[in-house]
Specification:
With 213 residues, the protein is α/β, with parallel strands linked by helices. The chain is built from six helices and six strands.
């Protein structure tokens, strides 16, 4: 089920990526459109924002792709790719940001999330949209100030930042997680490189040293 807000901005069946560990080139004129993805093989959250400045940000679309009823892993990946591609075609984002898989003890879950992230990135890269990835703690820290924030706290701050009415808030916090990734990238736009204070594997290792052994 999709959750769309502020109608009139397009259907959005796909998304547009931004370069991984690439150098950011700030947009000097006009607004910047950012597509954020919270990858998952059961639920994939996504959000699209338009930003004129750090303080002036507008919500274009948010939603969640539900895949729990799809039994074939390959079909799940195809649907993730197709939705990302559709969002990209609908919104023509300037940047594509995705949350990096969290490396826990469950290897199978890690591999599944990695595949979901990979096909999402592929949808952006083939369309030459710059892509960036951020560790989960980095996203939470950028939105709430705490890398240990809960999904509910992240959703509340996203709602406040984008002035989303209570009636338009989605039941799926994966949707607000997708928006959080987009907002995180927006806040990092002033960083010279994503490999520095931004996202990517360097950030993940820095913020999770115990998992880099």
């Amino acid at each position: 089920m999709d959750f769309r807000v502020l109608g009139g901005y397009g259907h959005g069946r796909g998304e547009k990526p931004v370069g991984v560990l690439c150098q950011l080139v700030p947009v000097k004129d006009g607004a910047t459109i950012i597509l954020g993805i919270d990858p998952g093989t059961t639920i994939m959250g996504y959000g699209v924002i338009r930003a004129w400045s750090r303080q002036r940000v507008e919500l274009l679309e948010m939603g969640a792709l539900h895949l729990s009823k799809v039994s074939d892993p390959a079909v799940k990946l195809r649907r993730i790719h197709d939705r990302c591609a559709g969002l990209i075609e609908a919104h023509a984002p300037d940047h594509f940001a995705v949350e990096a898989p969290f490396f826990g003890k469950n290897v199978q879950s890690m591999l599944k999330l990695g595949r979901a992230q990979g096909v999402a990135l592929a949808a952006a890269l083939v369309r030459e949209v710059p892509v960036a990835e951020y560790a989960p703690r980095r996203v939470k820290q950028a939105i709430t100030g705490s890398g240990a924030a809960s999904k509910e706290q992240v959703a509340a701050m996203v709602q406040r930042t984008l002035s989303i009415p209570d009636a338009d808030m989605p039941r799926d916090l994966d949707a607000t997680d997708g928006l959080a990734v987009a907002l995180c990238h927006h806040y990092e736009m002033g960083t010279p490189t994503l490999g520095g204070k931004g996202g990517g594997w360097a950030a993940f290792v820095r913020e999770n040293p115990e998992r880099a052994r």
